[in-house]
Write a structure and sequence with these properties.
The chain has 73 residues and is α+β, with helices and mostly antiparallel strands. Helix content is 37%, strand content 22%.
Length: 73
């Protein structure tokens, strides 16, 4: 499987404030569907690793529309 390109998210992380993305926004920006497994998404995914290296953690907010937030550590 090819590497996932998160470069379009870089400016959001550089803002150094918390932000959120819906599953639809994530798919549009990244070009792939958001992982469905909550543990994997927040701890083991390429996105979680990318976020951690930029000082953020992934938090899943289960609502009618699935949204993930990035919170400054």
């Amino acid at each position: 499987m090819a590497n996932i390109d998160f470069s379009k998210l870089e400016n959001m992380f550089k803002s150094s404030s918390n932000f959120s993305l819906s599953a639809q926004q994530y798919e549009k920006i990244v070009g792939r569907k958001m992982p469905k497994n909550k543990y994997y998404l927040t701890k083991k995914s390429a996105l979680a690793t990318f976020a951690r290296t930029r000082g953020f953690t992934v938090v899943v907010q289960e609502e009618t529309i699935r949204t993930i937030s990035f919170e400054k550590i």
